[in-house]
Write a structure and sequence with these properties.
single chain, 434 residues, alpha/beta, Rossmann fold, N-(1-d-carboxylethyl)-l-norvaline Dehydrogenase, domain 2, 6-stranded parallel β-sheet, 14 strands, 43% helix, globular, binds nicotinamide-adenine-dinucleotide
Length: 434
């Protein structure tokens, strides 16, 4: 099939490349000229495991191409995906301006029947708005479908290639048939393609993210109570995770969720209820998460005293989660800003996110390519993101490089008993003696 993917970010680039990998001809469009120039040369501007190799192969085999010419791409394609950003506006709601502007440009460029598919996360009713915007300008028939994307950054290619389910929301059976055919190679292991009305499809994406964020805030709240009453959240997590009604996933305590989706989608969902329907559970999920981001700094102050000025801390992990360079709404930002305000010197390392971090912190913090180099002369090590390479470090080297053997672990990746035996003062989240 001939496809156009408008918006070549984390979602659009992965989806476009994976559709090309299954044999389709895909033109990816973006307004960012530098991004398109890099991609044309086979350079992937984001870090996503396995993606660059796929982009290069499909470029070489000429199934995948990149352009800034939206109208040209729309004319060549029969199915047009929209995957532009839907950031938070000043009221916390989802800003769908980019989406509607894209829909208008698509409508204007149409040269025949097209299926327009919205992949961006957008409030319930957006598909209907897209339909009205296109209808007001298009001279040809078209269908609009909601196809929310559930991939996870850090595992995006795998998630797209083997989705748990594909959700298609439309009132147009012919368009649904075309999309089912397109997705057929991705659901060969029997995972379902769920067809529903567009409003339910749009809501499914928000409800999924809200459930996941709720699980994180829930276990964080339990972990705080564990600390207060002398229980160990690692034991509690295992005990509840074995209950099949609860399950073991997404109940790891930490320094809060971040990223480009959970925070904005929770706020957008609260906004969808307004006026008239309060969503107190989601407001609490957000409140717990905000508090959780300041937990590590509170622990640091409890250990070193309230005046941190002149101290130096090493930080391992800046991205909002491992295996991505994405810094959007990362908990590390809150931790670092709060420490900088307290007069602390920050020596940071991240395997992939340092270029993105430089855009946020500039020269206000120091950056180190090697994780051990960040430790030299620091008063303590802080773990903010649980990259695999931090899980089994050489603790002897850490001890030698730090001014004093102190670790604040925001992701519970070390064993408190082992660290204590090695002579560390070790602080983690919600665990006994840690
Ligand atoms: N990142 C994720 O993990 C993820 C997962 C599922 C869903 N989503 C949703 O998918 C959407 C896209 O997210 P993302 O993370 O890929 O965003 P992103 O910011 O990485 O990418 C969006 C791209 O759209 C481009 N763009 C904006 N306006 C354009 C226009 N008029 N024409 C062409 N290109 C345009 C931007 O230049 C950018 O490259 C959002 O609604 C997001 O909520 C994201």
């Amino acid at each position: 099939m001939n496809l156009a993917m408008i918006g070549t970010g984390y979602v659009g680039l992965v989806a476009g490349t994976c559709f090309a990998e299954s044999g389709n001809d895909v033109i990816c469009v973006d307004i960012d000229e530098a991004k398109i120039a890099a991609l044309k040369a086979g350079k992937v501007p984001i870090y996503e495991p396995g993606l660059e190799e796929l982009v290069q192969r499909n470029l070489e085999e000429q199934r995948l191409s990149f352009t800034t010419d939206l109208a040209g791409a729309v004319r060549q394609a029969s199915i047009i995906f929209i995957a532009v950003g839907t950031p938070q506006d000043s009221d916390g709601r989802a800003d769908i301006e980019q989406l509607l502007a894209t829909a208008k440009a698509v409508g204007k460029a149409m040269n025949g029947y097209k299926v327009v598919v919205n992949k961006s996360t957008a409030p319930v009713g957006t598909v209907e708005q897209i339909r009205s915007v296109i209808a007001a300008i298009a001279k040809h028939p078209f269908a609009v479908v909601s196809n929310p994307e559930f991939l996870k950054e850090g595992a995006a290619v795998d998630d797209f290639m083997k989705p748990d389910r594909v959700v298609l929301g439309s009132e147009d059976p012919a368009a649904i048939e075309q999309l089912k055919e397109l997705y057929e190679p991705f659901v060969r292991t029997g995972n379902p393609i769920l067809v529903m009305d567009s409003r339910s499809a749009e809501m499914s994406k928000y409800a999924a993210n809200a459930m996941l964020a709720t699980k994180i805030s829930f276990i964080n709240e339990v972990s705080n109570l564990c600390e207060k009453v002398g229980a160990d959240v690692s034991e509690v997590r295992r005990a509840i995770g074995m209950d099949r009604r609860i399950g073991p996933h997404f109940i790891f305590p930490g320094v809060g969720y971040g990223g480009s989706c959970f925070p904005k989608d929770i706020r957008a969902m609260i906004g969808m209820g307004e006026p008239g329907l309060e969503l107190p559970l989601l407001s609490a999920v957000e409140k717990v998460n905000e508090r959780q981001k300041s937990l590590l700094v509170e622990k640091i102050k409890r250990h070193f005293g309230p005046d941190l000025s002149g101290r130096t801390f090493a930080i391992w992990g800046l991205s909002f989660k491992p295996r991505t360079d994405d810094m959007r709404d990362a908990p590390s930002i809150v931790v670092i800003e709060s420490l900088l305000k307290a007069g602390v010197v920050i020596q940071a390392h991240d395997p992939e996110a340092m270029d993105e971090a430089k855009k946020i912190f500039g020269d206000r913090i120091r950056y180190y390519r090697r994780n051990y180099d960040a430790l030299k002369g620091a008063d303590a090590l802080l773990i903010i993101t649980e990259w695999n390479e931090f899980r089994r470090p050489n603790f002897q080297t850490i001890k030698e490089l730090l001014k004093q053997p102190v670790i604040f672990d925001g992701r519970n990746i070390y064993d408190p008993a082992e660290l204590r035996k090695l002579g560390f003062a070790y602080f983690s989240i919600g665990r006994k003696d840690g």
